[in-house]
């Protein structure tokens, strides 16, 4: 006699979806829940202008977190991204004010950010310094250089064409959202469709096996740090275009939210798992949480506490998943 095993549709769907896909669906559900809550407690939340503004804020956070996502998936860590953004912003602002050429400032920001990232890569992969210590040291170096360069001054007042990068619109959508979409698409193709992207996941999941397979792990990881630095430079341009000013404290508050966006988005701090789309959703979740706190009139002093708790919860979930994967 042949037995017939009946499977529920829910179980079949669970088997068909990858863990990353399930995680993305969970995050989309959380975003929907927060939006429904804000619709009831905040008048005017569901307007087009407000939703576009939320997406713009999330896009700014996503830009700096996107490069960090690549580094962490590859098994690294970059604590210097906020200070790198600060240094790039100050140098780019000074260049734009001196030359009147936004493209010259863009070249300086991207070049400075990439150079800082490459230096991180060399310290970690050639000199064998731990990623935490190397990038933590670079944080202080970049921040100190920014303070020394600015000498307590603030640079403000940029050309209208440059300010479009931060406050402009294209087809009715804020320009930072378009920039985030372009970066997200490039990151998605890089990780999901390229051989190099698959190598990044492999070396993050099992570095020893990656080395034995012939993957030049050191060079690949140095490239990831350079990309993270370049994204800090790009983020610096969008931030100063948005604020119309640059000062040596601009990047200090961004490190914790960037790390939180990456981890809340599902990227494992242990390496080998994560997506660019997840990081954008993580940035959007954090932005919506801040909106909810404002709607509930929670004192701004508590906002970092909530961000820190969110980060700790993401770390605990990540650790639990990794323990489960090792069983």
The helix tally amounts to 14
Give start-end ranges of low-pLDDT stretches.
Answer: 1-6, 8-14
Strand count: 4
Helix % is over 70%
What does this structure look like?
By secondary structure, this protein is mostly helical. The protein has a domain at 59-251 and 269-275. Helix content is 75%, strand content 2%. The chain contains 14 helices and 4 strands. It has helices spanning 9-16, 19-41, 48-73, 81-99, 102-125, 131-150, 160-167, 175-193, 195-205, 207-212, 217-243, 255-264, 276-295, 303-326, and strands spanning 155-156, 169-170, 173-174, 245-246. Strands 1-4 form a two-stranded antiparallel ribbon. It has a two-stranded antiparallel ribbon with strand order 2-3. A hairpin with a 2-residue loop joins strand 2 (169-170) and strand 3. Helix 5 runs antiparallel to helix 6 and helix 12 (255-264) packs across helix 14 (303-326). The longest helix is centred in the C-terminal third of the chain and has 27 residues, at 217-243. The chain is globular, with a radius of gyration of 21 Å.
Summarize it.
The chain has 327 residues and is mainly α.
Tags for this model:
two-stranded antiparallel sheet; 327 residues; mainly alpha; 14 helices; 4 strands
